[in-house]
Predict the structure.
Amino acid sequence: PSSAACFCLQPSEKCGVLNVTKITENGKKVRKNWTSSWTVLQGSVLLFAKGQGGGASWFGGGQSKPEFTVDLRGGSADWASKDKSSKKHVLEVKTRQGTELLIQSDNDGLVSDWLKALQEAINTHVSD
Ligand code: I3S
């Protein structure tokens, strides 16, 4: 099947709803705009779609493009320092292109799982 909903059935890939904001774009600080996004990790690429409750229907419908994507190759993912946000369980993702994102959920276990998956993706694709 070609539907993107199938991504999540691949054991190597991960998807779910997270709160996301950019904080830097191409090395330049941008204003935070926390948005609930359907998030998919596919290989070294992280895709975001606006709006909760999208899930399989959003992808399966195939009518929307991802809101934005970042390539994790050469980037990093780690817990964000406290000064980055007042929220709990926040990850900071940096790309080689100078984009920085914060990723957050109130579910700390879920965020820990994402951190593991992101770091694994970065390490797996380090020599691409
Ligand atoms: O890093 P900041 O400036 O404390 O981030 C907060 C602000 O961006 C705020 O928006 P406005 O300044 O545009 O009103 C957001 O609503 C907050 O969520 C931001 O802080 P947290 O700590 O939630 O990341």
Summary: Residues 31-32, 34, 85-87 surround (1S,3S,4S)-1,3,4-triphospho-MYO-inositol (CB under 6 Å).
